[in-house]
Structures are given as structure tokens and as C-alpha cells.
Amino acid sequence: MAARLAAILVVAIVGTTLIAGLIVGAQRDDSSGPVDLIIHNARVYVADDLGSMAEAVAIRGNKILKVGTEREVMRYRRPQTTVIDAHKGAVLPGFDDAHASLVAGGLARDGVRLDAAETLEEIQSRITEWIEARPDAAWVTGGGWSYDMFADQPVRAQLDAVAGDRPARLLSLDGQSLWVNTKALQAAHITRKTPNPADGVIVRDRRGDPTGLLKGAAIALVDRLVPPPTREERAKALQLAIRDAGQRGVTSVQDLGAASGDLDLYDAARDAGTLSLRVYAAVPAERTPAVDLDAIAKRYPDDPLLKTGLATIALDGTIDSQTAAMLEPYESKGAGAGVMALPPADLARMVAALDARGWQIAIDADGDRSVRAALDAYAAAGKRADGGRPPRHRIEGLAVIDPEDVPRFGALGIVASMQPLHATLGGTANWSKLLGPDRLALGWSARSLSAAGAHLAFGSDWPVLPLDPLGALRAAVHRPELHAGEQLTLKSAINAWTSGAAWASFDDHRKGTLKPGMLADLVILSTDIFAGTAQLDAAEVVMTVFDGQVVFKRPS
Q1: Which residues contact 200 (CB under 8 A, 6 or more apart)?
Q2: Percent of all residues in the chain with a pLDDT value above 70, rounded to a whole number
Q3: Residue 23: its H or E element
Q4: Degrees (nearest 5) of the Cα angle 30, 34, 36?
Q5: Could you write out the DSSP letters of every residue in 413-437?
């Protein structure tokens, strides 16, 4: 009997101890485990809908462990913990570029950049310097010019004056026009007798001779002469682009310009451990058969590092090139209203077919007529009959939207994917001539879209525009006087570069905000950008953390 009582007593003691241990363990936080990285003395912006701020962040492995006050986070410090003093600088989620072409950006790094040039003389000076630095280059390549830089339109004689005997091709800021010299026209056999290709224009003078300006599909007449890069060159370009992204605080890219073979390059980099940013790669729907789409989706399913599931449709061009499809004609004498690549009925059928296969769709539409057609196609597709996840379909570009269509974004759950630098780098003089004052005021309606319930996602449009998230933030919050009503608050603009972009790629459950359990992707800036305009204008990327590891640190 005594032995039995003793056994019962032992069991009771052991059980009580176990229960107490479970209770203590449940109440204990994770401060007793290893903490790899702490960032403190910071202005931490969580990037949630509440606009929450904090002072410090603790990271364990590749996940965020704690976000809170200095005192709350610093008690996680252990001897092995790396501690980084942000010196009161802003700490944000890593930038998620919602519209870029990563490999193309790496390939374009060596071209002459004409962004922000203000005069023809400055353009020619940059080209001359580029040529002097590359005496063996067979072609003069690059881009970034806008129509506002010229008194009228660029012509070949202006390039002939500096390019010498080399063919030259320079892409416009909007990516829809190519400025070439006489050598390039001769190499492509473009004469007054050359017909315009479908969906393209060879701009001609009064005598019918090519001026040196090619639009739309006519760009390919010259581009096909430029030797395509090898796989090795593209792989090198990818690594250069990844490095550039890290230097600018970009930890995720949604590649809407992925070329054939780019997914294989990403996959190889992932296997080699050199893919130090997250990629959501799109597939061009117009050039990809349905059976291939299914195979691609199966090969690259949802994954934190590399995935696909986004199909793109290029519907029109741009305002500057008069190729964006407008509800009313352009103001220029004899100009039309732009052209859509697909009739509305064909677009609706393509959208319905892709939606039925479970693909997210991104329609590139700049003009108000093409934006309306995209919204109509999405509305016709409706909710998925299988009751699956909401599709989060997207419209890219959105240069001009008819006010009547703005509320439809929120009602349909459409992502408004915009590139803020387009609103500032291109200038407004050419737009004013092409659209007139009433439509000019409708440009880049970010605030109106946000107020109507649209999900904003911002990107760079690299390499058409610079890979510059901080510049894009400034562009979004400091709009020109004409568009001052469309400027965003700083936190709203940051959200579009972080949590909003993550929502647009179905990644909001794992990245885009600085909260416990989220992936440890973040950027440290040199200033407290929330303190005022001067601090935002002076801000630089000090450090980029990807997957819990420091991948960029600015030299002291």
C-alpha cells in the first residue's frame, strides 16, 4: 500500500512539474533563444495600414522576431548578437519593385544615360563622353531622353553630329520611341520606300525621308541588327542587377519584362545561392501558348525566393509617342487617338481564358481608352467560379484615367501598378501639347485611385527609368503644382513600395511589413525621412538586409 501511494505521489509531482513547465513556456517569450541581429536607435516604419512606428527591430535567422521600443528590443541582445545603430535613420521594409525588367536593367547599365538632361547640348555632351570612354563600341546605345528635351522632335542629324561613323540607337524615356542616326537607318535599309510595320511608325519629313525617329513596332527594324547578348552575358547582367538592387534597398522585384530564358537564369542563380533578392517573374501571354503557361506555372510554383503566376498583356503605348489609346484624339493636327494592340472583344476573351487557368493578369495600359477596356475585361471575367483566391488582377502604367473609371478599381479589386518617376522625369510640356490642359490635369492619379479603394503598387520601370525607389518616393509626395492634388503622404507612398507591392504579388503573408514572423528584408536610410522634406531629399541607403543577412553596406 505504501509503495502504491509513493508511486501515485511521484506521478503527481511529475505531472505538476510538467504542467508548470508548459505554463511557464507558454508565458515566456523568445528572448532566451539566439538573436542574430538587432537594429536600434531607429525610426522604424512598419508599413501597415495604421502607420505604426517603432524604435528597434530584432531578427532571428531570416525572420523578424520583435519590433518595438528600444528597451523592449535591446533585452534580446546576447553576446553573439550583431547590433547595428541606425543613428536615428529611417528603417523600412525592403523595397519591392513592382514593375521592372531585371536582366534588361543589368544589360543596360553600360549604355549612355540621358535621364534628366535638359538641353540638346547636354544630350550630345553625354553621348560624346560615352563614346570617348568606349572607343571600340560597335554601336552607340542607351536612352532616357524625353520629348521635352527638344524644341520639336529628335532627328538623325543631331545624332550624326556626335556619333561619327557608328550606328546609334537611343530609347526614349517612355520606351516607345527610338532615336537613331543615319548610319543606323542605312544598316537597317530604312528609306522613304520602307512601309510602316503593323503597330509601328517610321516618322518622316515633308519629303518622305525617315527623320531618325521610330515608334512602336518600327523599333524592331533597327533592334534586330544589334547582336543579342549571350547566356553568359545575361547571367552576368543578372548579377550586376542584383548588386544594383541591393545598393538601392530593393529586396524584391516583380519582373514584368522577363525575356525568354530569364526564368532559367533565375533558377540557376537560386541553385547557386546567388539570387539575393526575391523574384516574381511574369510571362507574356501574347507570346506564350496555353500549354506552355501551364508547364511554367507547374515548374515555378509559389516560393519565397522565385515564382511565377503573372501573365502580361501589352495593350497600348505611351502618351509621349501618341501610341497610348485615348477616348478622344490627341491635340496635334491630324493625330488620331492611339491604337490598342487588341480589340476589346479579343482582350476580354484572353483575360477570361487566363483567369480561368488561375493566372494573375497584368495589362499594360497608359491611355484612358485602354484603361477602360482593361477594366471592362476584368469586370466581364468576374469572380472565379471555383471559389479560389481573388485574382488581384493589375493594370500597369495608368498615365491617364477618365474620372468615371477611377471608382471601378476599388469595386473590382484591381491593383493600380504605377511608376512615379514617369510623372516627373518626362516633363509636362509635350503632354500639354498632345493632351491639352484638361486632360493634362488627369495625369498619374495616384491619390484619387487610393481614395477610391485601389491597391497601389509602385515600381521603377527599370531600365526605361532609373532604379531609384527613393527618387520615386520623392516624386510621389512632391508632385508638380499642376498635379499637386494627386501627391501622396509619405507613408502611403512607402506602403505602395512595400506592403502594397507585396499584396500585388500575393506575398503579403510573408513580407512587405516589419512584423514578427515576417521575412527579414529591410533597408536602413541615412536620415529620418519622416522629419521633413529636407531629410527625405537628403536620404541615402545605408544598409540593405535580405533574408536576415546584410547584403549591402554603404562605405563610411
Answers
A1: 214, 215, 216, 217, 218, 219, 220, 221
A2: 92
A3: helix 2-27
A4: 115
A5: T-EEEE-TTHHHHT-SHHHHHHHHH
Beta bridge partners of 313: 363
Q: For residue 149, what are the β-bridge partners?
A: none
CA distance 178 to 222: 9
How far, CA to CA in Å, does 312 sit from each of 25, 64, 87, 281, 377? 49, 33, 42, 10, 14
**Cell numbers standing for residue 279:** 523574384
Q: Is-contact 158 145, C-beta < 8 A? A: no
Q: Name the amino acid, one letter, at 307.
A: K
Alpha helices in 281-343 (DSSP H): 290-299
Give the span between the Cα atoms of 263 and 244, in whole angstroms.
19
What span, in angstroms and rounded, lies between the C-alpha atoms of 507 and 440? 35
In 3D space, the residue among 456, 465, 463 whose CA is nearest the CA of residue 502 turns out to be 456
Q: Reply yes or no on whether the pLDDT at 333 is more than 90.
A: no
Q: Is the pTM of this model over 0.85?
A: yes
pLDDT bin (cut points 50, 70, 90) of residue 11 is very low
Measured CA to CA, the distance from residue 496 to residue 455 in angstroms comes to: 8
Q: What gap in Å lies between CA 499 and CA 479, rounded to an integer?
A: 22
Going by the DSSP 8-state scheme, the letter that residue 109 receives in this structure is G
How far, in Å, CA of 159 to CA of 183, rounded? 10
Amino acid at 439: R
Q: Predicted confidence band at 321 (pLDDT cuts at 50, 70, 90)?
A: confident
CA atoms within 13 A on the CB side of 249: 28
Closest by CA to 212, choosing from 235, 176, 182, 171, is 182
What average pLDDT does the segment 198-223 reach?
Answer: 93
Distance from C-alpha of 485 to C-alpha of 167, rounded to nearest angstrom = 44
Tell me: pLDDT of 376 over 50.
yes
Residue-wise pLDDT tens digits, 81-116: 999 999 999 999 999 999 999 999 999 988 999 988
- Say how far apart CA 530 and CA 552 lie, in whole Å: 23
Q: Which helix (H) or strand (E) element contains residue 279?
A: strand 278-284
CA distances from 231 to 144, 237, 303 (A): 26, 10, 25
CB 94, CB 545: distance < 8 Å: yes
Q: Cell match 563622353: residue? A: 129
User: Using an 8 Å Cβ cutoff, are 201 and 162 in contact?
Assistant: no
* Per-residue pLDDT at 20 exceeds 50: no
Contact 221, 236 (CB under 8 A): no
